[in-house]
């Protein structure tokens, strides 16, 4: 296994009581968790003037539940000795705190609108069975269920505590299932004659910058540690609880195309191997049950696709979308949208289990975001009602219009855990979660804030509606198939002119470097993708600095030539979509889906958003001496014809010179 891991994570802030251990310490109640009604999802209408205050109170409700779960997890002995302990010492006080918070929410809304009815009925919570079977005494880690999260326990940190996992609140063996046991899914809905068949892929890396926090600017703006779990962030580099819209607009971005400053984030994935991250003693981290080694994705692909029934409308700037439900373990699956699979098996998807992948196959985590917008709001009180999913046939609900659908694919190089020994030989893995959600795979979720340049967003919509493939990461499709497609392009490139082969030879040397630098396309792990070299196009960040000066001339002449791979039209347009030179550098790492070997190369080459212009194999290599290489490619195949055209003037001159000598000689003789 070659999992890329960051040994540190930023402090999530002080949303809770750092002096107390939330979970992962003390004696735990066998398979129990706290189940409370989700107030936020029921507040579908909150006046704008009250939104800020309501959001903070909702975050406080989450904090109260986290503390109640902490108390419950430490009170197994008291609960066993006194059947009324849980209610008297934990649940009743929680109900009182929630009732007071709910009253403040009602008052805040009542000041500027109509007081909501029935909030008081949401105060009571219950202790419920988690369904996790408590390990037998002495099982797993020598029966030491009282170890602190992050203790130097090596692989022995697994399976401790009634709810399993390194911190005692999950995961457990029952949370995993072999991907080979899943039946393949039916295909996508048939596309109509007016379908928008194109796609736009943006390349924003894999969080090489190590940007983490336990905030959630969408669900809990202005609240430190509002998520109670850590997120990976790519794209916008200013996302935290206190970022304003202007902060997001002015921020730097990890995306190859600097016109994409959007924020893409999701809960980190951790190996339950006993490692202490730097967040081990921080809210949102170890003290809230999120323990273990944070795994860096091998690659991340961000693709916007169309609608099977009609054209898409450009997304409004600053549109916010949350897909999935971080509390679906207790809320139920109504809003769940988790999807887990393995490379080579992506026609099989798991919704409530982590996949056990065959050797050589990587874990794949996919989010298909809502693709219908109400045409008016960039957010809503419960962060859901302003967007919706299309139905099975691709139709949006009445009053909603299709927008580009973000499909986010995250690949991890992690081995299938050894369930028979609780993960001691090969560690379990799990996403971060709210403490009481026990790291269940069904709680997985993704967040997106659209901060695309408006012109670029319009170009995205046009590209998708026109049936083209565009963007800095274009050229590879999710899944394993892309690997084959990209391989074809590189083979074509060398066939062009005699000098063309030199380009591909040079690129492979660059590619390997890129992954190490942390390609913007999310390919740190791509090196394992076979010859990722080919294309990883890696737009490593180091390379980014080199091409700019020479990149501009190269792509222009080369684009037309290579446009022939998929279709000439798409390639010509793509450069227009991402007209900045930046993309060239980063090349479409994204394309490297699933470790696609050669894909990388192709996609990678996609620099300027011309991704498809796949200057990849050719434009990247020519960088050292672009002028000379560009010309041969334009003239290359002409060979003899070109040579003759250049030599005939010289031949004519030679004939005249000889004739002159003959005439002169005759004159002298005469």
Automatic annotation (TrEMBL):
Q: Which InterPro entries match?
A: DUF1996
- Any idea where the DUF1996 domain is? 219-450
Give the stretches traversing the membrane: 647-664
Residue ranges, annotated region (Disordered): 1-33, 130-174, 182-201, 468-643
| Keywords linked to the UniProt accession | Membrane, Transmembrane, Transmembrane helix
Q: Does the keyword Transmembrane apply?
A: yes
Q: Where is the composition biased (Low complexity)?
A: 488-502
Q: Where is the composition biased (Polar residues)?
A: 190-201, 610-631
Which stretches are tagged as biased composition: Gly residues? 139-148, 156-168
Q: What is this protein called?
A: Membrane protein
């Amino acid at each position: 296994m070659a999992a890329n891991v960051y040994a540190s994570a930023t402090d999530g802030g002080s949303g809770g009581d750092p002096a107390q251990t939330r979970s992962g310490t003390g004696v735990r109640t066998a398979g129990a968790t706290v189940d409370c009604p989700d107030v936020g999802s029921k507040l579908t209408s909150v006046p704008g003037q009250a939104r800020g205050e309501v959001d903070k109170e909702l975050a406080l409700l989450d904090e109260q539940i986290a503390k109640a779960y902490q108390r419950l997890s430490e009170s197994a002995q008291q609960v066993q000795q006194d059947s009324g302990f849980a209610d008297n010492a934990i649940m009743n006080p929680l109900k009182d705190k929630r009732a007071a918070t709910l009253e403040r929410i009602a008052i805040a809304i009542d000041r500027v609108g109509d007081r909501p009815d029935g909030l008081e009925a949401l105060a009571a919570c219950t202790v419920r069975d988690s369904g996790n079977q408590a390990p037998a005494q002495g099982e797993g880690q020598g029966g030491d269920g009282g170890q602190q999260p992050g203790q130097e326990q090596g692989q022995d940190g697994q399976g401790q505590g009634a709810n399993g996992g390194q911190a005692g609140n999950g995961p457990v063996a029952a949370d995993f299932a072999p991907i080979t046991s899943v039946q393949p899914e039916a295909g996508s809905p048939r596309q109509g004659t007016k379908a928008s068949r194109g796609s736009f892929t943006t390349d924003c890396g894999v969080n090489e910058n190590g940007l983490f926090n336990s905030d959630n600017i969408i669900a809990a703006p202005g609240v430190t540690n509002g998520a109670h779990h850590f997120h990976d962030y790519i794209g916008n580099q200013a996302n935290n609880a206190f970022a304003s819209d202007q902060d997001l607009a002015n921020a730097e971005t990890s995306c190859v195309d600097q016109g994409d400053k959007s924020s893409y984030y999701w809960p980190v994935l951790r190996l339950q191997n006993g490692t202490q991250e730097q967040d081990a003693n921080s809210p949102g981290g170890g003290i809230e049950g999120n323990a273990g080694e944070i795994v860096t994705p091998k690659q991340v692909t961000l693709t916007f696709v169309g609608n099977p029934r009609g054209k898409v409308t450009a997304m409004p700037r600053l549109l916010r979308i949350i897909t999935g439900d971080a509390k679906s373990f207790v809320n139920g699956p109504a809003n769940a949208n988790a999807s887990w699979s393995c490379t080579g098996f992506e026609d099989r998807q798991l919704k409530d289990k982590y996949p056990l992948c065959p050797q050589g196959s990587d874990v794949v985590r996919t989010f298909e975001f809502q693709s219908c917008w109400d045409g008016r709001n960039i957010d809503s009180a419960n962060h859901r009602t302003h967007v919706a999913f299309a139905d099975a046939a691709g139709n949006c609900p009445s009053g909603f219009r299709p927008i580009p659908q973000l499909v986010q694919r995250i690949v991890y190089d992690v081995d299938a855990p050894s369930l028979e020994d609780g993960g001691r030989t090969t560690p379990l893995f799990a996403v971060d979660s709210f403490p009481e959600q026990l790291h269940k795979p069904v709680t997985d979720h993704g967040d997106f804030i659209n901060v695309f340049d408006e012109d670029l967003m319009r170009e995205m919509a046009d590209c998708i509606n026109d049936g083209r493939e565009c963007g800095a990461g274009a050229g590879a499709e999710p899944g394993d198939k892309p690997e084959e497609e990209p391989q074809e392009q590189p083979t074509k490139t060398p066939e062009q002119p005699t000098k063309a082969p030199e380009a591909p030879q040079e690129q492979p040397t660059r590619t390997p470097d890129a992954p190490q630098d942390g390609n913007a396309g999310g390919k740190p792990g791509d090196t394992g993708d076979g010859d990722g070299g080919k294309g990883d196009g890696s737009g490593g960040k180091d390379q980014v600095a080199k091409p700019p000066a020479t990149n501009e001339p190269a792509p222009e002449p080369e684009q037309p030539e290579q446009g022939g791979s998929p279709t000439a039209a798409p390639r010509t347009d793509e450069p227009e979509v991402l007209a900045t030179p930046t993309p060239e550098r980063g090349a479409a790492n994204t394309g490297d889906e699933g470790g696609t070997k050669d894909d990388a190369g192709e996609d990678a080459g996609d620099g300027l958003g011309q991704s498809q212009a796949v200057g990849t194999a050719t434009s990247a290599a020519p960088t050292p001496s672009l002028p000379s290489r560009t010309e041969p490619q334009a003239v290359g195949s002409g060979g003899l014809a070109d040579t003759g055209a250049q030599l005939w003037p010289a031949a004519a001159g030679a004939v005249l010179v000889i004739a002159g000598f003959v005439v002169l000689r005759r004159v002298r003789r005469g």
